Amino acid sequence: MNRSLLKALLLFCCILTLSGCRKEEQCQSIRIVHTTDVHGRLFPYDLVNDQPSEGSYARVAAYVQELKESNQEVLLLDAGDILQGQPTAYYYNYIDTVGVHPLATFFNQYGYDAITMGNHDIETGHSVYDKFVTQLNIPALGANVLREESEEPYFQPFVIVNKGGRRIAVIGTTTPSLTDNLPAHLWSGMKLTDQVETVRKYVDEIKASKPDMIVALIHSGSGNRDGAYYPKAEHVGYQMAREVPELDLILLGHDHKELLDSVVHQNGKVTYLLNPGSDAMSVSDTEVFFCKQSNGASSIKITPKIVSLKEVEPDPSFMASFAKEREAVDAFISSPVGHLTENIDARSSFFRPATFTDLIHQVEQFTFPKAEITLTAPLDFNVLLKKGTISIRDLFKLYRYENSLYLMRLSGEEVRGALEESYDRWIQTMSGPADGLIQINEEYFGGQYLATAHPTYNFDTASGITYTVDVRRPRGERVRITSVGVAPFDPQRTYLVAVNSYRGSGGGGLLTKGAGIPVQELQDRIVETTERDLRHYFMLFLQKYDPYTPTIKAKWSFEPREWTEPAIQRDSTTLFSHLKQ
Fold this sequence. Notes:
This protein is α/β, with parallel strands linked by helices. A 6-stranded mixed sheet has the order 6-5-4-1-15-16, covered by helices on one side. Helix 12 crosses helix 18. The protein starts with a helix and ends with a helix.
């Protein structure tokens, strides 16, 4: 080949290369918007505390409508815990059950494409969530929820959604730990499997449908970024991202913690993880660009973000469309049930016997008169019920969850073990009066929850027994019970103990880890259960003892008081001065 021809060939190749570099990408975008843990907050109003709120599905609807008006294609998803929380959900779950649930109406009419069922959705019971699912025009997902006998899916495992000509696969899972925390009749006929293994199992079937991207919509928190794997874990976001690299996006829920993060795989692919937190204070909004070059090469570019809805005004047409439902719920929760002669304040419940927790103890004893001991935790930490009329609204402040009540057989030593486990989550061993008493996590300062190291709904106290908690002693040696009623305490004797259904089913681990009862044996310990949730029995109690004078019957204390009282003063100021205002 002569030199002139070689130069000509090289020049031709360079021109081809340069023209290839200048080829334009053509990109099409869609938005994937995700909510989670909204807990029945349909309206931009906190119906429990009777004041406007920042979150709500009403604001979500307005935000999504604005996107659509700007010609955006929107895939709209919810990761569960829809049917429990605000009185709107409770009213249409249990009181007015005739028509279509307004939350089903909302999902059907305001553009949602799929939801995943959460543990608190299952907590409402088969009669509620089974009916709710039939009222939806969109899939309710739960790939790891199987029918116990056939092992066929109880909920739809995944769905392929077409948006703007693109096929988006969405697979849903929920936390399998709900079987350890909820009464068996609420999830009867179900078997829950490991979330990560389940998604991995479905990946090939999903890929056979040739989707443009795969999204996991899971009612599960992020978990430990570098933590070891263990079967049927509750929080598996990072683990799923590491072990199922085919996923482009993992949309989380359950732990109420905002998150925007990613896992980069060895081949350079990125799996994004997003959680907007709870109550629709924010949404996750991911813009996905499907790009194609003129030479046929294609790629996906993902731009995720968490968007606050604080400045989003609800659409007046939304409010008008649900005006009747709002009026009905308002009338229900404003109904009087009794009267208080004095204020009841929750804050002191963390430091000593208090009227807030004692009212719960008394309602449990009233419900099961045979109970020799009652156990309860403060389910809220900043409630003040003022003397005067008490309404159904106030019952939601006193008791946040739809728990029923169990009467169980526990030995004295098992009761002590459960209390040891409770206080071990609550307090720390003190070496002197200058030490702190409460386990405080400063990372939670400024948040909407109390900055304790562990959830306060596991801070059980007991009534019906007299006991002390020696803060000088190590774990397992703090609680000393001296009597049950007027009789001496016998660690070997079996007592009848009233506990809520969450605790009695193993929730929080106080009866399993603390008392040492295998979870599979708990059902055999149950003597009696209530037919209704505890709020119903609050209503009966307050109607019978109207007006109610708050009293303290529980007999326990932190010892030695010359150490604990100064620590209580300091810790109380620290905890309650750092709450989100």
